[in-house]
Amino acid sequence: MSWKSLATIAVSAVLWSGAAHAETISVFCAPTEFELCSSVADAWKEKTGNEAKINKMPALLDDAIPIYQQLLAAKSTDIDVLFLDVIWLGMFKNGLLDLKTAIPQADQDKHFASTLNAAKLDGNLVAMPAYMDVGLMFYRKDLLEKYGKPQPKTWDELAATAKEIQDKERAAGKGEMWGYVWQAKSYEGLTCDAIELIASNGGGTIIADDGKVTIDNPKAAEAIEKAKGWIGTISPEGTLNYDEEASRAVFESGNAVFHRNWPYVWGSSHKEGSAVIDKVGVMPLPVGSIGQKSSGCLGPMYYGVSKYSAKPNVAADFVNFITGPDMQKKRALKDAVNPSIPALYNDAEVLATIPFLKDNQQAFADSAVRPSGYTGTSYNRVSQAFYRSVHDMLSGSGDIKSGLKTLAARLEKLKESR
Amino acid sequence: MSAKLARRDHRAAWLFLLPVTAVILLVAVWPLARTFYFSFTNAYLDDPSAYSIVGFDNFIEVVTDHSWWIAVKNTLVFTVISVAIETVLGLAIALLLNSAIPGRGLARAAILVPWAIPVVVATKMWEWMLNDQFGVINKILSGLGLVDHGIAWTASSSLIMGVVIFVDVWMTTPFMVLLILAGLQLISPEIFEAAEVDGIPAWKRFWSITLPMLRPAIGVAVLFRVLDALRMFDLAYVLAASNENVMTVSIYARDRLISFQELGVGSAASTWVFLLVALVAIIIIGVLRLDRATGA
């Protein structure tokens, strides 16, 4: 054997041992956060030498459920870190690793206690909060200024302002202008949009914390009636099949005055390709009538570790890293997302990017929580029964009052968790 | 051939069949049997190992569920209308392609394009083309002055089933064309020549010669398409998630099984889907006498 080939073997042996120390884990990230996740992975690699491979999740987040189920049911080691919606935690708790000891207590204590506690199931900490998501109202501040309109406080004011600006803009030649775009496709997002309208009208949150079905009430009917009146007048008929991205496309192409969505739109509407850069304002959602609470739908998002991960400690370290203060600050600065760490709500840099953050702390306190706590494993069928019947009412094929009565009777049968 | 040789042949045949039988057992019979089995249990997807037997409860639960019957209605409406349109269109296009026109080869290749596009891609493509704000269809309609603002094709509960059928027709007519064209080319030209010599008019030639001779080809094509349409999932799901107006029986089963994690009830729903498809297949084979027509 020549010296040359011996040297090659020696060099590759050194490289091999070097590579053996660095682990690679596989991480799921929401498609709208792909860039952010990649930059977090880069920072993590710099700090620990380990690599995180990012997998994009489906555009409709709910479509990730069957993927997760298959991976977990097969006890797959292909995936280490899962990105989780709060309403999924109960569903996946048996497949998630307990992070109680893997993540230092001091790091856990940095998060909002209520958000962290929502991830404590059967005495296990199944996931760590990544950020707070809450429904917000985006609006065209340039158009409100142009027509001398204040930020609307109630849904009625919003509808009136939207109508007026829409009509005047159309008369001025912008024929494609709409007053308000939101999400009313028959999917989980409609549960959020509807619960916001109903709760801020004093109509409750479908099922109360003690398990009482509250949806059949006049306040709820009034809120849905109102929303039904918007479709075709201030909201395009297509709203009935819009999800977040489809409605965002209308707003960011400059064709809508108001837009209900999640905080990420603040970041995306200021990126290249948006027609509304520096023309966007954001505020808490309006209320049904003065005195009610603005009730943005609350959806904290989490990262958890699969129980079947081959590298649980490395994966837990990544989860702690991506949910830690530095990365949450980065997320806040880049995508204007609300952190789940209270200390960041006083951070000057963060406040400069998200001036409305201080108000949001109140929005979180006032937020409407989907009834996933009481319904647990039955949440999905409760939510589907709810959004389907609301979709029926909005599209005009059902009477609202009797529809709510039928819905309440159905929920009574569906609500119990296993 | 001696008896010994024949025996050896039989043994070889069985030996060759063994791998195929094993594969079919593994990928078809085993999952089907498991679904059957689970439909008699109260198992849940997050922990399929803990369950007890509940008899026919799940089957009863499915047929007493209002949503199930909506799904059955949607599936039947979709199947009947889409397959009917595809058959008529497929026959017409196949007849055109069968006559010797210049550029026939090119046309035959071009017509296959929609069939080659994956369903999800084609559906997404149509979804954007039909979009009420940016869609090219609405741009064309308003450009022609037919509408003053975009039609929300996929939002209205009455239009959306039409859209699903339309996209399916666009996608699978080529399949019909191919099968019927293959049948057409099997018909011997002498029969037509003889009929022409006898002075039989064109429409009668079509009615009394072409159609009867095509029956096996059309029958097989319709059978394939009906079975395909009855278990349709991707098109409706991509276009409208679990919108009740286009929810098919497959989407219903998927909801119970995956979204609600009800392995028992979901399996029972899947079993109903299987029985529904099997029943329709038997009826079609019986009505069209496919077993006899194909000479089996």
Automatic annotation (TrEMBL), chain A:
Pfam families: SBP_bac_1
Entry keywords, A to Z: Periplasm, Signal, Transport
Single GO cellular component term: periplasmic space
The keyword Transport appears for this protein: yes
Gene3D superfamilies in UniProt: Periplasmic binding protein-like II
SUPFAM superfamilies the UniProt entry points to: Periplasmic binding protein-like II (SSF53850)
InterPro entries membership: Bact_solute-bd_prot1 (IPR050490), SBP (IPR006059)
Keyword Transport applies: yes
Broad class of the protein's primary localization: periplasm
Localization: Periplasm
N-terminal signal peptide: 1-22
Alphabetical list of PANTHER family matching this protein: ABC TRANSPORTER PERIPLASMIC-BINDING PROTEIN YCJN-RELATED (PTHR43649:SF34), ARABINOSE-BINDING PROTEIN-RELATED (PTHR43649)
Family according to the record: Belongs to the bacterial solute-binding protein 1 family.
Protein name (record): ABC transporter substrate-binding protein
Lineage start: Bacteria, Pseudomonadati, Pseudomonadota, Alphaproteobacteria, Hyphomicrobiales
Automatic annotation (TrEMBL), chain B:
InterPro entries according to UniProt: MetI-like, MetI-like_sf
Major subcellular location class: membrane
Key words, A-Z: Cell membrane, Membrane, Transmembrane, Transmembrane helix, Transport
Record-level GO BP terms: transmembrane transport
Protein topology in the membrane: Multi-pass membrane protein
Transmembrane feature ranges: 12-33, 76-97, 109-126, 159-184, 205-227, 269-290
Domain of life: Bacteria
Subcellular location(s) of the protein: Cell membrane
Domain ABC transmembrane type-1: 72-284
GO cellular component: plasma membrane
Annotated family: Belongs to the binding-protein-dependent transport system permease family.
PANTHER family per the UniProt record, alphabetical: BLR7065 PROTEIN, INTEGRAL MEMBRANE SUGAR TRANSPORT PROTEIN
Protein's recorded name: ABC transporter permease
Species annotation: Xaviernesmea oryzae
Classification of source organism: Bacteria, Pseudomonadati, Pseudomonadota, Alphaproteobacteria, Hyphomicrobiales
